[in-house]
Amino acid sequence: MKQKQMMDALPGTVGEGLAQRGVDRREFLKFCTAMTAMLALPPSMAGVMAEAIAKARRQSVIWLSFQECTGCTESITRSHSPTLETLIFDLISLDYHHTLQAASGAAAEHAREQAMKDNDGKYLLIVDGSIPMGNAGYSCIAGISNYDMLVETAKGAVAIVAVGTCATYGGIPKADPNPTGAVSVSDIVKDKPIINVPGCPPIPVVMTGVLAHFLTFGNIPELDALGRPKSFYGETIHDRCYRRPFYDQGKFAETFDDEAARKGWCLFKLGCKGPVTYNACATTKWNEGTSFPIESGHGCIGCSEPNFWDAGPLYKALSMPVSATGSMLGAAAAAGAAAGVAVTWYNRSTKAQAKATHAKVTVQELTREEK
Amino acid sequence: MNHLDLLTFARGSALNWALIIFVAGTVLRLFEIFGLSRKPDLARPRIDSPGSGWRTMFTRSIPPQGMLKRDPVTYIGGYAFHLGLFLAIFFFAPHIEFFRSISGLSWRALPSALVDASVVAAIVSLIVLLAHRLNNPVKRMLSTFGDYLAWTVTFLPLLTGYMAYHHLFVEYTLMLALHIFSVELLLVLLPFTKLFHTFSVFVSRWYNGDFFGRKGVAS
Ligand code: SF4
Question: For ligand 1, which residues put their CB under 6 angstroms from it?
């Protein structure tokens, strides 16, 4: 019966696609319940979401990859078994993605142009990678510069999802000295809603969550000041970290494999950037909920924050200076000493001078001033 | 500039400059003070009181008889504030990491909750002491701009540190940056304001004790 409900889905909708893949309603509802929890929606929304997504037409998506390492695509497509997340992903209509699509060259570009024409004003544009503003030749696709392709494709998009720290904030290409003049999507596109899903790479389920939200409500989720969905980036890693009690007690690992590290003590001293990093790793975890970096014994590197590559050494504690050294202070002390000697010399010579010019007066020399 | 950039700046070049000014300024002032030199006192000491200076360093740190009763706010507030500040600066784990990274030395931290309590004690004491200073006519008369400046730049790091630790009102990354900036302000001003007593207090107590001892005044 439940199976039948799915079967009744209108042609071309997500519901139809799910039915064809043999996903029953119970399974789908379970997914929607998880999604509503992720998106911090009330549990009663699960049914609404299931309904809305099942009825939604397969969303046309154009995915552009610029200066990137394909890690974002790897992250989103690499699931060990075909999870519902990947199914949902399959059930959008991914009309252009030059890593995943079979077509290449002119045919591939044609697919993009066709999708843009067919779904003008309705397609979702996903971008990974930063855009070089230096020489256009630093990165281009089919002879089209990244900048031109982004501007052209963004025009007809209903919204843009910038995936990964490169697309959202410039990422490693933008790291000092930024040889290609890399910028983020939001540096270029100003007139479209942009959802930033940063991370190096971002968590797959965050992507799915954003898509689910979009399919359910037809709009974009609530964003923070850096354009990130609040439901996933509302709290720091530190706030949700299972090692937090040890931080509060002042129990820290001193090296990566000491007794304390094995006991699960806090990694703050080893450079953990969890306290200033907003992301969902500590709750959603990675690899189908297996673990997240801190659970594997490595501090958070802060990959979902803008310019994290340039935010000081990865293995220096957050309370350590980025670049101040003992020798720098030694030099400052030496300079202070030199200045001190000069001041002392000046003070003493002033004193000596005062003494030398001091005219002594004897009692005999004093005369009474007559009034 | 986003919050993390601001924090990176606070931990980076801003901190470097603050530390350079602090260290150079402190050494300069120490040279200046010790280099002043006094005329040798040719008079015979009134009483032979060896160790008078050293004794005074200690005795001036505890209230003279009856004073604790007469002015409890100043004494208790003063102790609570100085102890709280000392514990917060030197025994909060992240602070020890700071000292370790520039000096190579490290020591055991206190549990954060204990440091937190000492910070609260220091903050409350500072506020009470300020109120007392404003209400007590003698204290008010003796106070100058320098005193209020010293109060403010000492208060800010405590307040911002407390707010950062408890994630109060302001986003944590920004608050942490503000905390570091407030410490930098303190570092820059310390050598050139009354706050220099951090380094000179015991020296001047020794000096006074020794001086008075020679003149026959008990210390
Ligand atoms: S390991 Fe990192 S995120 Fe976890 S409690 Fe320690 S500092 Fe915070």
Answer: A 237-238, 241, 243-244, 247, 266-268, 272, 274-275, 294, 299-300
Of A247, A276, A337, the CB nearest to B176: A276
Question: Would you kindly state where each structural domain of chain A is located, as residue ranges?
Answer: 7-232, 237-367
A128 - beta bridge partners?
A65, A163
In this prediction, residue A100 carries a pLDDT of: 75
Query: What's the CATH code, domain A237-367?
Result: 4.10.480.10
Q: Would residue B44 count as lying in a domain? A: no
User: Which atom of ligand 1 is nearest to A273's Cα?
Assistant: 2
- Asked if the structure places residue B174 within a domain, the reply is yes
Which CATH superfamily groups domain A7-232? NADH:ubiquinone oxidoreductase-like, 20kDa subunit (3.40.50.700)
Would you place residue A335 in the very low, low, confident or very high pLDDT band (cuts 50, 70, 90)? Answer: very high
Domain span holding position B22? 3-37+64-214
Instruction: Please indicate whether residue B22 or residue B64 has the higher confidence score (pLDDT).
Output: B22
CA distance A354 to A348: 10
Any A CB within 8 A of B200 CB: no
**pTM of the full structure:** 0.84
**Cβ-contact A192, A157 below 8 angstroms:** yes
What is the average per-residue pLDDT within A309-324? 91
How many angstroms is it from A293 CA to the middle of ligand 1?
Answer: 11
Q: How many other C-beta atoms can be found within 10 angstroms of the C-beta atom of residue B153?
A: 19
Per-residue model confidence as pLDDT tens digits over B144-166? 999 999 999 999 999 999 999 98
Q: Best of A241, A246, A252, A292 to mutate for ligand 1, by most ligand atoms within 8 A of CB?
A: A241
| Domains held by chain B: number | 1
ipTM for the whole predicted complex goes beyond 0.85: no
SS3 of residue A34 by DSSP: helix
pLDDT band, residue A5 (cuts 50/70/90): very low
Q: Which whole-number Å values give the CA distances from A174 to A131, A163, A171, A203, B199, in the listed order?
A: 9, 15, 6, 21, 45
Least Cα separation, residue A140 to chain B (angstroms)? 29
Q: What is the DSSP string of A189-208?
A: --SS-EEEE--SSPPHHHHH
CATH number for the domain spanning B171: value is: 1.20.950.20
Contact A115, A96 (CB under 8 A): yes
Is pLDDT at A85 greater than 90 in this prediction?
A: no
Judge whether B42 lies within some domain. no
Best residue of A165, A304, A319 to probe chain B, by most B CBs closer than 10 Å: A319
Tell me if B57 is assigned to some domain.
no
Give, for ligand 1, the residue of A235, A238, A273, A304 to mutate: max count of ligand atoms closer than 8 Å to Cβ. A238
